[in-house]
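Newbie here. two chains, one complex. Structure please?
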Amino acid sequence: MSSIHDTLQRESERYTIHHGAFDRMTRRRDRKRRNERIAALVVGLAIAIGIVAVGSAILRSDERIPVDRKHRSLLREGEVLELGHVDGATLYATDIATGAKRTLTGAERPFACSDCSQLQLSEWGLSAEGGWIAYVQGASGMPDYGLWVLGANRDPILATTEPSGWAWSPSAELLAFGERREGAYEVTLLDPATGERTTIVTYPFWIAALAWSPDGTQLAVAGSPSGIQVVVLETGRSTSIASAARDVHNMSWSPDGTRLVFEGLAIDERGHNVTEPNQIRVVNVDGSDDRILVDHGVQQVPVQPTWSPDGTRIAYVTWPKGRQGDLSEVWVIGADGSDATRLFHARCCLAEHYAVNYAYMTPGPVWSPDGSRIAFLDLTHDHWLSYPGFYRAVASDGTGSAEWIDQIVAESWAQGR
Amino acid sequence: MTERSRSGVAARTSIGTAASEASFEEFFESEHRTLFRRMCLITDSPAEAEELMQDAFMKLWERWDRVAAMEDPTGYLYRTAMNLFRKRYRHAIVAARKTFRAEPQADVVALVEARSAVSEALASLSSRQRAAVVLTDLIGFSSEEAAEMLGVRPGTIRSLASQGRAAIRGSHTEEGSR
C-alpha cells in the first residue's frame, strides 16, 4: 500500500496550472497597487477632515499580586492552580479540601492584555517552588500572544512572542523554552527573578517540546523533522536519539532519569510517515533500546503517555477519531511492554468537532501520588459541554470500576500538591 | 536535506540588489507549481488555489530582499500561503466564489468527472482536515508548525490529520475493489 505521502503526491500531480502564471501574478499585483493608491487617497482625505485612527493599548492592573509572607509559593498549602473563565480567562488558587477559590491578585486580571475580556490561556504551569506561573496567552497572530511569566509583586514578564515548547525546571526557579529567532530556533533559560536569559543551544529546526530530567541537569528537546536531542545543560553538549520517529511530542523522563517515553510517528528511510498512526515509544537517554512500546495499528491512536510514580508502568489514553461509535480508552502497560491492561473504555457519542477542538485539553492520564489510581478526563458522556472538566478515577491494577472525582482532586495529583 | 530546504538554498545563492528581481522570478518558477498543486489539495478548487498561490508570492515579493536571506524561504512561502488560507476560511469566502465564478466551474466539473477514489475521499473532508494532512504528511511540517499556520492547537492538527489519513486509507481499499 502506498504511503500517505506518495498518495497525496500523485493526487497533487493531477492538477496543472496554465502557462503564464508569473505574468498573471504581475498583473494582479499591479491592480492591487492601483487599488491601494486609491485607498490611500481616501484615507488621507478622512484624516484631513478630522478622523483619527486609534491604535491598540495594553491595559495594566495597578494591583500587584500580594505576597503570602508565610510561604515562598504563590499558592498556600493545600491549594492548587486552576483556570477559570469569567469574561476571559483567569487563574485561581483553589483550596483542595473546601473548593474555595482565591484570585491571585486583588483585581481579576493580573495579566497584560489589551482586551482582557477576550483573554484565553492555553497552557500554564507553576514553577518548582511555586514562586512563578508560566502561561501561554492568546493565539498566534493575536495581540499580546506569547509565553509570559507571573510572579508576586511584579508586572508580567514576556518570555517570548514566538513560543515553541516550554517547561519549568524541576529543581530550580528556571524556565526553559524554545523560541524562533531570525530563522533559527533557540532553547533559552530564563531566571524570572533576575530577568537573566541564557541561550543553551540553537537548532535549525522547529522545537516542538521540552522535558527536563528529574534532576534538572538535562533537557530533552524534540523538533522537526525527527528525533530528540538530549542536552547536558552544564556543557551544552547535545546527543541525538530516537531518529526513527518524527513529530515527537508529549515526552517525559522516567522518575529515575534513564529513559524517555513519547508519542511519535514512525518514518521510513525517506523520512516519510508510514501509514500507521501515532505510536508510543521508549528510548534510553543514551539512545539505546529505542523501541515501540504501544502500537494499536489503524484502529486506535495511543496518546499522552505518563509514567507511574515508581517508574514501572506507563498510563496512556487512546484517541477517539471523532466519529460516532469510536472507542475512547485508558490503558496501563509495564515500562518493559508487559501486562498491557485496558482500564476503561467508552463509545464516543459526540460529533467530530469535539475531538478536534478539545483533544489534548487535559494533561493526559494522571497518577495518584501512591500510584494506586489513575484520573482521566471523560468526554464521552452527554453533559460534558455543560460541565467541562469531568474526571474519573480508576484503580491502576484494573480492579473495580471508574468513579467520578472532583476536578480539583485530579488537578492536585497533576500538580503534585 | 528536505525538498523545502533545497529550494531555499537555490534562492539564497542568487540574492543581491541587481539580481533581486531575477532571483524572485527564479524562486517563483521553482516553487509555484508545487505550491499550486498542494493548495489545490487543500482548497479542492484550482481557482482558489491559484489566487492563494499568487497572493502568497505577492507578499513575498514585497519583502523579497529579507525573505531571500532567510534560512528557509520556501517555508516562509508556505506559512504565508496558509495564513492567507486561514483568513479566507474564517470569512467563508470560498463558498461564495465557487458559486459565482464561471471559470472555476469548468475546472471543477472536469475534475469531478475524472475524480479518483482518493480525490473523492479528500473532497469529503473539511478544508482544515485536508490542510492538516497535506501540511504534515505531504509537505512535512510538524504538527506544531502546522498548528501555528492554521491557528489551532497542535493536538487539533494531529486529530485532523488522523482523520484525513483514515479517509485516504479508506480510499485505497475502495480503489482496490473497483
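Moderator note: The mean pLDDT of chain A is 77. Helices of chain A lie at 4-12, 21-48, 352-358, 407-415. Thread marked as resolved.
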